């Protein structure tokens, strides 16, 4: 994948993720999110991408101030990271620094999985499966009633917990070969999709997938 294609695919993914977020807030924070939706549409069209990205970056910065931080946690943080890297890529004085901006996004994406797994490994509740059991048993997320029974299946939650930990910690190894990376991204996308379906964490699915082209390009750049 070429740098130009990867950059454009990240722009498309980010614009779609931000359009979704804007629609969720129309009627509640219209003055803050309607401009975001309009700028995301401009970015999606590919017309005046640079100004649209900088406008979205400023709006996201204002949202961080308005809500006193990333009110939706990691999804909002990654959205800001994507916009920052895209903005730098467009404003960079040379192609080298444009590539460095996209490479930084790719590295941060890898670290987002690895660090998440490392933190879980150090948490005894995750190692025992108790943390995952609590998600289904007590979480305020809109888990369907029939899924709450999973909390009683300790072998399943224990196995699933260690599967998540092992996958996240081993994720950097996917950079060794394109086939490894393809498989890892399919599994990761499936993980985010299941979280969106069962827990309602739909924002994580779209924004994480929007950064995948940067990682595919980066892997080809350092290995190919």
Can you describe what's shown?
The protein has 224 residues and is mainly α. The protein has helices spanning 3-25, 30-45, 49-66, 74-91, 95-121, 124-128, 130-138, 154-170, 178-199, 202-223. The protein has one domain (3-223). Helices cover 79% and strands 0% of the residues. Helix 4 packs antiparallel against helix 5 (95-121) and helix 7 packs across helix 8 (154-170). The mean pLDDT is 85.
Topology:
Blueprint: H1 3-25, H2 30-45, H3 49-66, H4 74-91, H5 95-121, H6 124-128, H7 130-138, H8 154-170, H9 178-199, H10 202-223
Helix pairs in contact: 1-2, 1-4, 1-10, 2-3, 3-4, 4-5, 4-10, 5-8, 5-10, 7-8, 9-10
Q: How many β-strand runs?
A: 0
Identify the overall geometry.
Answer: globular
Oligomeric form = single chain
Elements, N to C (H/E): HHHHHHHHHH
Mean pLDDT: 85
Radius of gyration: 19 Å
- Distance separating the two termini: 11 Å
Category by helix and strand content: mainly alpha
Protein traits:
10 helices, 224 residues, mainly alpha
Short characterization:
The chain has 224 residues and is mostly helical.
